[in-house]
Amino acid sequence: MNPGIRRLLQNPASFLTSAPSDGVCISSRIRLSRNLAGTPFPLAASPEEAVRVVDEVKNACSRPSVIGCPECLFFDIESLDDMEKLALTERRLASADLITSPIPAAVEVSGYESCAVMVNEEDHLRMQVLHPGFRLEECWKQIAALDDELGDELDFAWDDELGYLTACPTNLGTGLRASVMLHLPGLVLSGEIDATVHGINKLGLAVRGIYGEGSGNLGHLYQISNQVTLGESEESIIEQLSAVIRQIVEYERRARVKLLREDRFSLLDHVGRAYGTLQNCYRLSVNEALESLSGIRLGVELGLFQHLGIGTVNELFVELAPGHLQIRSELALPEDEQNILRAKLFRTKLRERS
Amino acid sequence: MNPGIRRLLQNPASFLTSAPSDGVCISSRIRLSRNLAGTPFPLAASPEEAVRVVDEVKNACSRPSVIGCPECLFFDIESLDDMEKLALTERRLASADLITSPIPAAVEVSGYESCAVMVNEEDHLRMQVLHPGFRLEECWKQIAALDDELGDELDFAWDDELGYLTACPTNLGTGLRASVMLHLPGLVLSGEIDATVHGINKLGLAVRGIYGEGSGNLGHLYQISNQVTLGESEESIIEQLSAVIRQIVEYERRARVKLLREDRFSLLDHVGRAYGTLQNCYRLSVNEALESLSGIRLGVELGLFQHLGIGTVNELFVELAPGHLQIRSELALPEDEQNILRAKLFRTKLRERS
Q: Does B268 share its domain with B129?
């Protein structure tokens, strides 16, 4: 196994480690798109140019800095096997586009995984800071510092009128995308989610599923992010998003209280069945695991479980994914065997705690 | 509450008390149809004639005999409330037709519930003997003795050529219907059930669901009974049925072994999910309860549970029914509240044992 991957997998995914939680916001993320001046964007770059970009970014990341060297990890994507690539995406350290990049690509990860710099994704650099809970301010401070440090080493493509230049015009200007992942079972179960999503969209924000665009509302999880990157300051973008998130958290909480008060047995039934299935099944798909784990997360947040904490839920949330599952078993497995193994993982973890 | 019903409900339903079981046959039943000579069949009887029939049968049953007086219980159907009537059908001591009879009707039940005599169902008398497991021989000995004893007291309608006369020609002759209730999850899960049912039908036997004709295969339960009552001796009818039952039991056992060997995880998953749902849900319909309890029964028979015995399964099988459920709660409840109460019953019973 790649020694870096091995080191990563010794710890829980940092974006899910326990943080002071409002019970709704799972994680916060800010990423900045940057490109090197005078070098073609990755889509147009030759293999030699791509390799040079990887080397330059690797070199820039190699001094003690925000990204946290010497503990930081550098992953040359080509050197990883399929399970290892998947594991990086499951920890949200690499995108699907990065791990399938046709040209040399890489990712630099800080020791605690809170910072990552993807190289040769859509842009030369995609830096991100990712934290558990609702912590956009902290993400912003940290990524601004990282951006400054890397900017000292690298010559970022910049236009005085447009701001940072990016491969896709939707990222032009700040190159900033801030997003929060929210768990909204209350709004889903009470039928209020469609109106909520509609309202968020009208405010110019994007709502996506856990696996990005088109992944629906699997596990009652929603990622809400800014769409506008041009013509506004980073602080203003983040403050507008934060205000909306605060409001959605409040809606979700009210929906949960209302369900508990007015439809208590439906809520208990939903949570109980999810728990009963995960604790006793012998075949479990990713989708069913995420759906049922959502029910358990809701139960934990509502204090319905005595012996089960949010730490177990968060741990299972990452460990259930195909890459983690297969790496743990040290076997590349067909889907049906993954389903059998996933069921065993849940039976074991949930029985320990019951 | 009717004191007789109260006494019945102090004990588990006798047809489900633990008996040496083959793991497939739930219960065996033989009933005989008899009518009083010179009296119109129930459908054509006046209320006065119906009352006279009830009195005559009650009187005939009132001496120490097979039916077990003085411990036997007499139920005047009109005197029972809806929940009590349901409870009698759930213990298989009365039929749906009996409890909705437009004329005075009754049922006489032996102390241990193994014998019952319905009065003014389709025929004046429908006597039955009901035992747990595959015990048709014992049923036959007992009901033949009961028939003899009642025949000494009552003048049964009889024709030298046709045999016993009955309201419906399908019962003519012996008036005998023998049936065994089988639990066939192995044949269902392995997809062999349709061919099996087809084969049984070709042998001239009837296959019905747990609630009689048209009730499907709820809970993987099947009642198999003779159709022919005329032109064959009682012993011959019972022997033919028994031979078929023995064969189906063998098929079912083979199907279970095959599933365990060749599709073990599907079987474990089926059983585990049933258990997880019943142990953790907060709303449970009759149908879902029966379906899931079937999974648990299979698991118990295959030795998959350490702390759960067939006694609990059998107890729940009767207690989940609407009449028993409402009588236990001492409340007539709307369906949704029955579902909530039923879920609580399962959570409590299954957690006691886990």
A: no
Identify from A267, A269, A284 which residue to disrupt to test chain B contact, counting B C-beta atoms within 10 A and taking the largest count.
A269
Question: CA A17 from chain center: how many Å?
Answer: 13
Same domain, A223 and A279: no
For strand B221-226 and strand B205-208, is the pairing parallel, antiparallel, or unpaired?
A: antiparallel
Chain A CB contacts of B279 below 8 Å:
276, 280
Q: Which residues of A touch B343 (CB under 8 A)?
A: 269
Contact A341, A333 (CB under 8 A): yes
Q: How many structural domains are present in chain A? A: 2
Mark yes or no for CB contact B280/A276 under 8 Å.
yes
Tokens encoding A147: 């951006």
Q: What confidence tens digit (pLDDT) does each residue in B244-271 have?
A: 999 999 999 999 999 999 999 999 999 9
Same domain, B102 and B214: yes
> Is residue B29 domain-shared with residue B150, that is, in the same domain?
yes
Q: What is the pTM of this model?
A: 0.91
Does B269 reach chain A within 8 Å, measured CB to CB? Answer: yes
Domain-terminating residue out of A255, A281, A307: A255
Residue with tokens 């793991």: B23
Assembly ipTM = 0.89
The residue whose two tokens read 């059930």 is: B193
From the list A275, A280, A343, the residue facing B275 with the nearest CB is: A280
B280 and A CB contact within 8 Å: yes
* Domain boundaries, position A297: 264-352
pLDDT tens by residue, B195-254: 999 999 999 999 998 776 556 789 999 999 999 888 899 999 999 999 999 999 999 999
Whether B222 and B314 share a structural domain: no
Distance in angstroms (rounded) separating the CA atoms of residues B271 and B350 = 14
Beta carbon pairs, A and B, within 8 Å: 54
**Is the model's pLDDT at A353 over the cut of 60?**
no
Q: Is residue A70 within 8 angstroms of chain B, CB to CB?
A: no
Contact present, B326 and B338 (Cβ < 8 Å): yes
Q: Report how far residue B10's alpha carbon sits from residue B19's, in angstroms, rounded to the nearest whole number.
A: 19
Burial class (CB in 10 A: 0-12, 13-18, 19+), A221: buried
Cβ-based burial of B335 (10 A; exposed 0-12, middle 13-18, buried ≥19) = exposed
CATH of the domain at A73: 3.30.590.10
Q: Is A292 on the interface with B (CB under 8 A)?
A: no
